[in-house]
Amino acid sequence: MSDDDKGGKILTFPGKKKKEQSKVPSLMSEMINTMFDTFTPDQKEEFQGYMTTNLELRFRLTDDEDSFELQEIPLLDELDLDVDLEDMTKMMHEVEDKKNLAFGYIKAIELAMFDAHFNYDMKALTNMTKKLQDIFKDLPQKG
Q: Domain-by-domain residue ranges, the chain?
């Protein structure tokens, strides 16, 4: 349908309107201030203490209902770490290579076990089972 078929008006779908970002802080501030106004003096004191000590990103209620202030989270300026990034990178590559090699061995063992199973090779299966049991005993136990 063209705009002319509707009489020249385009209806917007409900809920699809773009919200202005500048209004969100105003709405939040108004909502919090309204809630804060209903508190008893003890509740106000408790809430203010909570807001200043327990939240990672804190804000302070102000008399201006259209704003609130954000405070920065303190960060460590410099971390004193004795880590050589080249050594760490080398170690990460070596660990990845060892993992890939171990999975290659597991795949080869699995294929050899299936071959021995289908050939009824009890000697080979017994030998592999004993060696795998020794490896299993050396693994760190979890659980």
A: 19-70, 85-138
